[in-house]
Design goal:
This protein is mainly beta. Helix content is 7%, strand content 57%. This is Porin. GO terms for molecular function: porin activity.
Length: 337
């Protein structure tokens, strides 16, 4: 038995003990999401089985009385195609929180809420996972060592803010994330802002001091759901120089529901990058996806999609050779538990 298996058994044993306590509730949950795909990167074609952000986790809460609750959430990713667990056992999420009429205070590691409020919200066909995930959104928040506050809901409005402490790590500074959501009836609006003064991998492979602001809108009309976001991102001291970089990006998405069937389409574009006031040719990119989901139950679906990323000649948003395009034809199964 390896260390990971021992740790898992220990966690499950603790969860079982806690669940027996009357004042507490503990739930094990997860998602297994796997596709079989025919992919093409540049001139290279291959068949592959892909994990689509499969995960499992434990969430719990305790009623402390007077409307106050203590809670926690631990979440670990794993590769559903190989069974390999994430090197960071609870790397996806590890937080403790206190909540009440005042809202919620969160401590630990958790995903940026500005991302959830904008890009993730309109990624409806496969929960922004796998090869059809949004490759063009600039995610610049550092998610560890975070102190967060989530407001209560006022009508359809809520807000969240978080700071990621640098802990005096070399070259690091505190990072900040702010978001706001308004959801009432068919209309949804979201706003997100992030500032991180030490980040890598922005706009493909740039590093520097990043800021991003994004706005999302969504609207449901009968069986149709439409969504869009716009993002403006900047990067100072690019790759250790005094130059600055700027980029605009947007995405449009639509879903039509017919019984158990869902028909999806989305299109995203990252405009050319400007560095030091000069536009860099060949740095724009497009991404589009057509997808179909059939919901066998509330927890299980089968689906298929075709996705394509057209990189400019001097950029790569897929981790492959500069300028190489990527496409994939996929079929898959997703089960939530």
């Amino acid at each position: 038995m390896n260390n990971t298996q021992r740790a898992l058994l220990a966690v499950l044993a603790i969860a079982g003990t806690s669940a027996a306590m009357a004042q507490s509730s503990v739930t094990i949950y997860g998602r297994v999401n796997t596709t079989v795909e025919r992919q093409k990167l540049g001139d290279v074609t291959r068949s592959a089985m892909e994990n689509n952000a499969s995960r499992w986790g434990i969430v719990g809460s305790e009623d402390l009385g007077g409307g106050l609750k203590a809670g926690f959430q631990l979440e670990s990713g794993f590769a559903s195609d190989t069974g390999v667990t994430s090197p960071q056992f609870f790397g996806r999420q590890s937080e403790v929180n206190l909540s009440g009429a005042f809202g919620a205070v969160r401590l630990g590691n958790f995903i940026s809420d500005s991302y959830y409020a904008t890009a993730d919200y309109i990624s409806m066909h496969n929960h922004d996972t796998g090869t059809s995930a949004d490759a063009l959104y600039a995610y610049v928040m550092r998610d560890v060592n975070k102190i967060g506050y989530r407001s209560p809901k006022f009508g359809g409005f809520s807000a969240e803010g978080a700071v990621s402490l640098s802990e005096k790590a070399p070259g690091a500074k505190n990072a900040f994330d702010l978001s706001a959501n308004y959801n009432a009836g068919p209309l949804g609006l979201g706003l997100g802002y992030t500032s991180n003064k030490a980040v890598e991998g922005v706009f493909g492979a740039f590093s520097g001091e990043a800021e991003q602001i994004a706005l999302r809108g969504s609207y449901a009309v009968g069986a149709f759901t439409l969504g869009a976001y716009y993002q403006y991102a900047t990067l100072d001291n690019v790759n250790g120089t005094t130059a600055d970089a700027k980029r605009h990006a947007y995405r449009l998405a639509g879903m039509y529901t017919l019984g158990a069937s869902e028909f999806h389409a989305n299109f995203g574009r990252a405009e050319k990058i400007k560095v030091g006031g000069n536009t860099l040719d060949g740095t724009a990119a497009n991404q589009w996806t057509l997808g179909y989901n059939y919901n066998l139950s509330k927890r299980t679906k089968v689906y298929g999609y075709y996705t394509k990323i057209d990189n400019g000649s001097n950029i790569s948003y897929v981790g492959g050779p500069i300028g190489a395009d990527f496409s994939s034809l996929a079929v898959g199964v997703r089960h939530n538990f």
